[in-house]
Amino acid sequence: MTALPDPTTQHPIRFPNADAPAQELISRCVHCGLCLPTCPTFAELGVEMDSPRGRIRLMKSVWDGRLDADNLAFADHMAKCLDCRACETACPSGVSFGKLMEGARSQVVAARRPKLAEAILRRVVFRGLIASPSRLALFARFGYLSKRLGARTVLRAIRMGRLAELLDLVPERAPTAQRLPPRYAPVGATRGSVALFTGCVMRAAFADTNAATARVLARNGIEVVVPGSQTCCGALHAHAGERGDARVLAKRNIEALEDLPVDAFIVNAAGCGANLKEYGWLLKDDRDWAERGEAFARRVKDASEYLVGVGLAARPGELRATVAYDDPCHLIHGQKISAQPRALLAAIPGLTVVPLAEADWCCGSAGTYNVTQPDLARQLGHRKAERIRASGAEMIVTANPGCQMQIEAALRRERSDIPVVHLMDLLDRAYV
Ligand code: SF4
Ligand code: SF4
Fold first, then answer.
1. What residue owns the CA closest to ligand 2's atom 4?
2. What ligand 2 atom has the least distance to the C-alpha of 33?
3. Which of 69, 96, 111 marks a domain boundary?
4. Closest-approaching ligand to the CA atom of 34
5. CA 88 to ligand 1: nearest atom
6. Which of 101-115, 188-202, 259-273 is predicted least confidently?
7. Does one domain contain both 304 and 187?
8. CB under 8 Å to 3, separation ≥6 — which residues?
9. Which domain holds residue 249?
10. What is the mean pLDDT of residues 399-409?
11. Ligand 2 centroid vs 84 CA: distance in angstroms?
């Protein structure tokens, strides 16, 4: 392995703080290019600097003092990455690309001096909105009502098409934000106990999916508690380079959940799960929290991972439908979970599961990507919709709210009314 030059002796440090992409991780890349065919942005743009290898080279260039972290081109190539981590799955050298990308973005945020309006907008979104479930629920309701009342037509007429496209992402059905009971009693013999992580977007707009997850677990003999003091996991903050805010939220969640006498913390949103499992890495430089972060992360389980691990105690009822499963990137690439959701689908009698080409290819949702990079997100959404239509499925199953919204919007743009449902909602239906 080639040692990277020590930037403290040979070059000025161009990354502004300790969240910089780790040189040890960068040095694992041997530039073989095996990740390139799996990279959606490289496939769409055909530019080396928009491939994993190219982006790693750019990070190294900043360490070597050949590029500044506030360089606009550097920021642009980092921003265009989906952070989908498909390159991690493909990489034979074990490059943890997600950690590198989140580190690089944090340095762009720290190095750049954003315009006042952008700084205020980021503060409002990341601190005022996403971190507050009640405000996010109000926002979701406002978005839904605006869409229903025809705001998209008005926005397009006054040449605010970008805002209209954002409203396209709002689900067709009304957001549900009901408060869940603090406990779901297990049905039959108790086989385990878990705490349900309810998330921010999930709590604000998909509370019925949270309730479905709790019911499915309870139906299988698992006691479910829903702690009220938990908060947003901080995934959107970490992906956007706001690692300071992400750490504040992580500490709040650790304090809220770590002492609970439960077997696992269950999460049904792939993006949240991948982030919760990396609390140890997020807090690694904090002497008082690093170990607590690691211990917390070890107890996080995706709902499908946990259910397949303990086994289904209750046989689901019959559902007659032809479905295809689309892998959320942060489940298949971020958590290496792809067999478990398929095993749960296979357990539903009557269900026909058809293969979906490029099921492991990002749909373009990628956190806030469909807001910050709308053109690329739309291209990837179109690609996903084409594959879905070719699959012959009459329903798409996935396991992440962002994917659900993005795929649904992409299908509607193609005039397709194929429904997109969460795996836990489908299982819950099978148990009714
Ligand atoms: S995370 Fe996804 S978009 Fe980014 S470099 Fe890797 S494969 Fe490409
Ligand atoms: S596959 Fe891994 S080692 Fe090869 S270029 Fe991509 S990131 Fe580097």
1. 32
2. 5
3. 111
4. 2
5. 6
6. 101-115
7. yes
8. 27
9. 183-308
10. 94
11. 15
Please report the pLDDT score of residue 3 as a whole number. Answer: 40
* Average pLDDT for the chain: 91
- What H or E segment, with its residue span, contains residue 208? helix 207-219
Q: Which atom of ligand 2 is nearest to the CA of 30?
A: 3
Identify which has the larger pLDDT, 164 or 333: 333
Do residues 330 and 403 both lie within one domain? yes
58 and 67 in contact (C-beta within 8 Å)?
A: yes
CA of 51 to the centre of ligand 2 (A): 10
Q: How far away, in angstroms, is 65 Cα from ligand 1 center?
A: 24
Determine the Cα–Cα distance for residues 190 and 219; give it in Å rounded to an integer.
10
More confident residue, 303 or 123: 303
Let me know whether 261 and 324 are in one domain.
Answer: no
Q: Over the Cα atoms of the chain, what is R_g? A: 21
Confidence band (pLDDT; 50, 70, 90) for 130? confident
- Full-model pTM: 0.90
Residue 177 is predicted with a pLDDT of: 62
| CATH classification of the domain holding 200 | 1.20.1050
pLDDT at 9 > cutoff 50: no
Q: State in Å: Cα 92 to ligand 2 middle.
A: 7
Residue 98 Cβ < 6 Å to ligand 2: no
| 67 & 120 share domain | no
Cα 76 to middle of ligand 1, angstroms:
14
Please return the burial class of 4, using the count of CB atoms within 10 Å of its CB with bins 0-12, 13-18 and 19+.
middle
Ligand nearest the Cα atom of residue 27: 2
Q: Give strand ranges (E) for 130-280.
A: 183-184, 192-196, 222-225, 264-267
User: Does the CB atom of residue 34 touch ligand 2 within 6 A?
Assistant: yes
Shared domain for 88 and 161, answered yes or no, is: no
**Same-domain check for residues 225 and 285:** yes
Q: Are residues 205 and 302 in the same domain?
A: yes
Q: Give Cα 418 to chain centroid, integer Å.
A: 22
Q: ∠79-81-84 over CA atoms, to 5°?
A: 135
Q: Which ligand is the nearest neighbour of the Cα of 86?
A: 1
Q: Whose CA is nearest to atom 6 of ligand 2?
A: 35
Q: CATH no. for residue 70?
A: 1.10.1060.10
CB of 415 sitting under 6 A from ligand 2 = no
Do the beta carbons of residue 74 and residue 132 sit within 8 Å?
no
Residue 77 token pair: 């190539």
Ligand 1 pocket test, pick from 87, 380, 383 with the greatest ligand atom count within 8 Å of Cβ, gives 87
Which ligand number lies closest to the CA of residue 51? 1
Q: Is residue 397 over pLDDT 70?
A: yes
Considering the domain architecture, whether residues 192 and 292 belong to the same structural domain is answered as yes
